């Protein structure tokens, strides 16, 4: 594989053992693999970065694994001040990191840029994975850039825009009855051809894209960090990636410390929150998921232990919120901050409301993971339920 000069290889997140850059799946210790870098060899600082245009996540190319990426100019999303929303919630300073501005409207574009690059470097002819919906759309887009055949297995409840855009981008979509675990099972049972995995953590590069969110937050705050970052949690890749990014900046001396992280989940599917509240370092699979927030309905997150590690090491918190509160928060953000927040981002904002007493006079960043237009029907139905 053609990797960047500072890329050191893959390491086991449990033992630290090293693996080849082309490795996929779990380590010998049955733990996810993680890209590793020689941070001492990264020859830039705040002044050097200031000379680069703030246009894509690849402005941080020395901290990404590949020297010739598959990219659609993902990243460089805005950090939007939400003063009215913060005042209503009782928070001194609230900012929204709006990942809905990415090419296919989701933070997952960052990870799929890297994951599909890895597939291209491995000379893959077919890529595949299962997702609640956004991932299938994103993967199809990036696979199309390199003319690789892609398969996205999604549950039947996936929003129509995701389904439509998978095909528009040239991908093959397999709709599976049931929920996300059913789609994941169908992937392994039904796809008979050889394929290169794009699954979170099985492909060790997806969560590495998420760390650039932390880089952008810190740079936009003039190389300081907020007191808190509130992250919707599904597979665990986002919160672990954000945590890793802030750790990188701390080790490089660009920021003083890692912000406290909050894992936000829907009350109808909250395996990470439940484990955190029980003081456990491992989650139990969620048996009866029941939430309208499909992107967060991941019952057995592969990165659950890594999410819990990020909370523990950042002195963080975890909270589960109701669907109604999540949808109301998303609508309020659209009406007061001009940000089209999706239901998953609404979960993060509802968590801000629930934890407002914890935040005092501090700065809070909530991550909106997806464009609200992907679930406009759900948001509109919420309003109709209120007689609007």
Write up what this structure looks like.
With 388 residues, this protein is of the alpha/beta class. The protein folds into 2 domains: 79-106 and 204-385, Rossmann fold (3-Layer(aba) Sandwich); 108-197, Rossmann fold (3-Layer(aba) Sandwich), CATH 3.40.50.1100. The chain has helices at residues 46-50, 83-89, 108-121, 134-145, 160-168, 180-190, 206-220, 237-251, 271-277, 304-313, 323-336, 343-354, 356-359, 376-385; strands at 7-12, 18-19, 33-37, 79-81, 93-98, 126-130, 149-155, 172-176, 196-197, 228-232, 260-266, 317-321, 363-368. Strands 4-5-13-10-11-12 form a 6-stranded mixed beta sheet, with helices on both faces. The protein has a 4-stranded parallel beta sheet with strand order 8-7-6-9, with helices on both faces. Strands 2-1-3 form a 3-stranded antiparallel beta sheet, with no helix packed on it. Helix 4 links the parallel strand 6 (126-130) and strand 7. Helix 3 (108-121) crosses helix 4 (134-145), helix 8 packs across helix 10 and helix 9 (271-277) crosses helix 10. The radius of gyration is 19 Å and the shape is globular. It starts with 6 loop residues before the first strand and ends with a helix. The relative contact order is 0.14. The mean pLDDT is 96.
| Measured distance between first and last alpha carbons | 55 Å
Domain module count: 2
Distinct helical segment count: 14
Rough outline: globular
What are the defining features of this structure?
6-stranded mixed β-sheet; Rossmann fold; 2 domains; Threonine synthase; 14 helices; 4-stranded parallel β-sheet; globular; 13 strands; 37% helix; lyase
